[in-house]
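Tokens for chain A. Residues wanted.
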């Protein structure tokens, strides 16, 4: 083989090594969706249960108590309503965010979705899901109690950046900072109604198979963890092309 042929062959090999990954990416799907066997029409990005599992058990059979299993079964009957609640005439694509105030990526994801909501691009739905212990539970209850006085968004944004000290005194101080009724905030945070809201979100996360926070339900697409803005926008665009999430 001539020197020239060797040089040409070597150059082609180098070009293939450099260009092959880019070429392969061009023909590979951008998102590796997995169907959710227990939730027809829903799909996940990488954490969905395998299609070989029993659909009757997914999201229900691994509940910790019979009460939670019953709650999961009820939520699974109408998953869109359970995740997003009533649209109230808002036809924007709903994006539900499952957050814990002490998870490292929740503030970033929360800020991103809030920005898109304020710009009118999506309808943000906040799901308080305390998975990191008692402090997370207390913060979630505080945010849900603030919602009863119409201040969830402001308190949510605050708690994402400022840890809540334990005890009623901290709740009263929080209420004062946001112009809320301190005693009502303390009572609501300890109420059975707020506890039920937390338990319902926990059960809903189980139905969806979310592995942890932050979790996102973008229409019928489920994902979890940190997500760059451009990737989230592409998922939003894809969801808008499909049918709305209606039970």
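Reply:
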């Amino acid at each position: 083989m001539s020197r020239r042929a060797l040089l040409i062959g070597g150059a082609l090999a180098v070009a293939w090594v450099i260009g092959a990954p880019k070429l392969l990416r061009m023909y590979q799907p951008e998102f590796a969706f997995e169907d959710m066997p227990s939730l027809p029409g829903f799909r996940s990005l990488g954490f969905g249960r395998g299609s070989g599992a029993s659909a009757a058990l997914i999201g229900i059979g691994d509940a910790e108590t019979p009460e939670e299993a019953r709650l999961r079964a009820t939520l699974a009957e109408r998953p869109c309503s359970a995740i997003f609640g009533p649209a109230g005439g808002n036809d924007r694509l709903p994006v539900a965010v499952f957050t814990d105030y002490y998870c490292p990526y929740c503030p970033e994801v929360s800020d991103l979705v809030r920005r898109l909501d304020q710009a009118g691009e999506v309808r943000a739905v906040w799901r308080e899901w305390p998975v990191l212990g008692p402090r997370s539970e207390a913060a979630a209850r505080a945010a849900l109690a603030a919602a009863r006085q119409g201040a969830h968004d402001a308190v949510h944004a605050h708690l994402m950046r400022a840890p809540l000290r334990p005890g009623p005194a901290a709740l009263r101080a929080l209420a004062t900072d946001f112009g809320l009724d301190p005693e009502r905030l303390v009572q609501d945070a300890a109420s059975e109604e707020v506890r039920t809201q937390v338990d319902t979100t926990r059960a809903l996360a189980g139905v969806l198979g979310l592995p942890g926070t932050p979790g996102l339900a973008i229409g019928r697409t489920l994902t979890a963890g940190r997500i760059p803005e451009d990737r989230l926008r592409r998922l939003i665009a894809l969801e808008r092309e499909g049918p709305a999430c209606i039970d």
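The first strand starts at residue 33 and ends at 35. Residues 1-30 form one domain.
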